[in-house]
Amino acid sequence: MTESESSFIEDQAEALDETFLPNDSLACKWCARVTPASRMEKVAYPIRDIVLKARQVQATGTKMHWFNIGDPNKFDFAPPPWITKAIVDALADSRFSAYAPSDGDPDLREAIAKNEGIGAERVFVTSGLTEGLYFAFQCLLEPGQHILLPGPVYPLYSTISRMFDGESMFYKTDENWQPDLDDMRKKITPHTRAIVLINPNNPTGAVYPRSAIKAVADLAGEFCLPIIADEIYDKLVFGEPLPSIHRIAGPDIPVIRGNGISKNFFYPGSRVGYLALHGPRLDKMMPALTRLCNSRLSVNWEMQRGALAAFTMPPSHLPASLNKLRARRDLMFKRLNEIPGIHATLPQAAFYIFPEVTAGPWASDAEFIYDLMESTGIVGVPGAGFSPPRPGRFFRLVYLAPEAEINAAMDKLEAFMKKRLASPASARSK
Ligand SMILES: Cc1ncc(COP(=O)(O)O)c(C=O)c1O
Question: Is the pTM of this model over 0.85?
Fold first, then answer.
């Protein structure tokens, strides 16, 4: 665990303790036994943990701007109606109220396999891609080994690395958030088990071009390392459609490709995702994944029927959704870069922006985010929560809100920055 990671996790744990542990009346001589296992110290999910503090601010009557969580359906997005119809139909059919087959609904596996260009036996349907990633890390990691992660990274990855006793190892990204191939190469050791590529990227919104994907695939091939390719935002790209890594890498490179319907199909609450195993080098992983799937019984079957509709019908909801997202991205990008002391790069996909605080009195990005939240009600996530491997105060905002709310929040952020830059001491004296 890096130093900034561990201090960030300590802060989060303290915030949780404050919220949940005030009840002295439960103290008795046995209470000391009712404590979480030590491995719980390794669990942090800053995107949601920040909400605990935000609720305290909200309780003071402050109008909040919830720009911390990547859930489009908390704003004015919704799943396409043909997906919800398929779910309603499944709900009316008692066959789908049984446990589903552990590795997924057979029709759904077939449909995914067809899109992926592999056999259905190589597809594992999971409860969101989240569960798929838990499974992949569990299958691959031995204690003390590592799976190379991008820095910054979606925090789930660092948490599951720690939970399965892996070491934290991040490869650098450049000023446009593209993977630094030299750094990646330097970090490959005999203990490396896989390379994670999140493309399009959360938290940065970066999209890697074909050349970068090919270079990572070649490097992985050189060391015979699987690539865990998280492409959960692959249809939410503002420019050219994204070429999926397994089509670029070729059959010799083992690619565990993860996807789902949370983002591309605006259905995060469905909790349907999958892993697709490309390349014969992954054959030994298949029985291990089957065992993990069996151990947790199944994924909600009705929701899988919704996913079947998603993967078999034309995604005609996308043009309008992308236009809406693009307008919001452009607005937030423009407004942020007009604010003194803030610099942002233009996201190419998804709904996140990862700006840097370039001036101002805060000792860390967490300090900035808490001051911002208390002063303006804007809830973002401190960069430390994403383990960026280069110095700087970063934070993540989502640009899912309608333009009027983005403008209102950016007005507040602008006034806040001007005030703090004019009188830095006010941040500390609060
Ligand atoms: C990069 C990335 N991967 C995976 C997930 C989790 O996806 P799911 O909702 O399918 O579990 C998220 C969710 O925000 C994400 O941003």
Answer: yes
